[in-house]
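User: Please fill in residues for this 459-position structure.
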């Protein structure tokens, strides 16, 4: 790749937006390799506190002089060309690279890089695999899209030749990677503002698969995945519920949907029984992907089973926040109809009196293009409450509103603000209910507001 040798020539690296969840792990890993790191950010926060705790100089605010002494500038996708630090770097002739490019460079410094891709489940599976590999003594480095309580953050600096990272398909950023092992969890219609259609998404995943140097770990039950890679010349290892896969689940049972238990099979032979602490059949798929990958790397059945059972999830993936007044408040990152469907089906099987889904639609384009699919997903819970659409990077050229979604979901309620939602839910939820906030934006703030109000009411 174009910039792969750049780290051989420099010592000091400046990160614009160093507190970002995708930037902090890179800074941490490069610092461990002996590079001098500095950075800037606009907002204080837990991640920035972690960075400062390493003794890394951090400037608050973006100014041209902040890059003094830097020999390379790394910026996140949110940083535009007119950013004063990025513009100054160009003016001074200092090389500038985007975060996904640096991720590719860093991962190629490891002999065995493991990239977890797919439309859904990347963060949970990356967290699972990281925990299994650390617990099995492999000492990997890891870059995760969410906080993993087991390691106290979203990054881990190991001392082996293994690195585990998420490979995001949006705007083809995962094509910056050339993994030793590529995991494809599933392929679904998403990010249509960029890809336009499912065929284009599959073409990108095919390119990603072709860049793999070792093995492909594939969801053999997912038709889109298998279609995308059918012409790719690589070692292919499949997993799923179907016994035609290399690894598959048999004798699946659940304790009210909370403890998923299954026998892990490999080519007709039972390897072990796995018990999960995270709910839902989608997490069985994630565990199968983890097991297949860990086996390929050399882990044994006992290690895999023991460490999967200890996995308690990652931040914002069916995360239980509290149970004031015997009302369970949870938060989940689900923002695509497939994710909502999987999470809500799991929730409905967990034995709650009533499931309240509080959904924040994420981007106008996704809401407009997948409107009917969202509506079907939101028919699953007992109660569906829909907030206004979070624009993210878009303007409403689609003329779409949350009320358009609400009109397709019988007995749903559209409330624009988190304050309105909090008041309504707290007035109506009863002991034994689950309140589950869902979305890829800042709906977790609503979850925290609900939790606070219920605590005031019952504690």
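Assistant: Residues filled in for all 459 positions:
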């Amino acid at each position: 790749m174009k910039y792969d040798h750049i780290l051989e020539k420099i010592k000091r690296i400046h990160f614009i937006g160093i507190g970002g969840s995708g930037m902090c792990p890179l800074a941490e890993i490069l610092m461990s390799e002996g590079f001098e790191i500095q950075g800037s950010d606009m907002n204080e926060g837990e991640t920035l506190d972690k960075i400062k705790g390493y003794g890394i100089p951090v400037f608050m605010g973006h100014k041209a002089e902040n890059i003094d002494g830097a020999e390379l500038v790394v910026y996140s996708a949110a940083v535009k060309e007119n950013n004063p630090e990025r513009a100054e770097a160009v003016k001074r002739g200092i090389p500038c690279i985007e975060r996904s490019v640096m991720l590719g460079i860093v991962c190629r410094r490891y002999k065995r890089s493991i990239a977890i891709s797919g439309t859904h489940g990347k963060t949970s599976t990356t967290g699972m695999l990281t925990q299994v590999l650390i617990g099995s003594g492999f000492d990997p480095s890891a870059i995760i899209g969410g906080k993993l309580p087991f390691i106290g953050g979203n990054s881990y600096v190991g001392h082996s030749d293994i690195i585990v990272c998420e490979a995001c398909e949006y705007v083809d950023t995962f094509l910056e990677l050339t993994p030793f092992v590529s995991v494809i969890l599933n392929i679904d219609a998403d990010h249509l503002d960029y890809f336009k259609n499912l065929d284009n998404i599959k073409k990108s995943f095919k390119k990603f698969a072709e860049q793999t140097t070792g093995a492909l770990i594939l969801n053999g039950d997912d038709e889109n995945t298998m279609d995308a890679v059918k012409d790719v010349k690589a070692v292919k290892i499949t997993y799923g519920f179907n016994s035609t896969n290399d690894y598959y689940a048999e004798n699946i049972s659940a304790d009210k949907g909370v403890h998923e238990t299954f026998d892990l099979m490999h080519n007709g032979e039972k390897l072990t029984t796995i018990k999960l602490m995270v709910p839902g059949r989608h997490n069985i798929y994630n565990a199968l992907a983890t097991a297949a990958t860990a086996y390929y790397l050399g882990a044994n059945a006992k290690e895999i089973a023991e460490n999967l059972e200890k996995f308690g999830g990652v931040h914002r993936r069916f995360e239980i926040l509290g149970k004031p007044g015997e009302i369970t408040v949870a938060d989940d990152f689900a923002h695509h109809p497939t994710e909502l469907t999987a999470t809500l089906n799991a929730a409905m099987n967990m034995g709650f009196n009533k499931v309240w889904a509080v959904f924040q639609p994420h981007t106008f384009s996704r809401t407009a293009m997948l409107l009917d699919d969202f509506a079907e997903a939101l028919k699953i819970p007992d109660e569906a409450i829909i907030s206004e659409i979070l624009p993210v990077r878009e303007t409403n050229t689609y003329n779409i509103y949350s009320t358009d979604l609400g009109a397709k979901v019988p007995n749903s309620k559209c409330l624009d603000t988190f304050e309105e939602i909090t008041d309504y839910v707290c007035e109506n939820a009863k002991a034994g209910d689950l309140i589950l906030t869902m979305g890829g934006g800042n709906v977790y703030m609503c979850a925290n507001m609900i939790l606070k109000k219920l605590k005031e009411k019952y504690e």
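For context: The radius of gyration is 22 Å.
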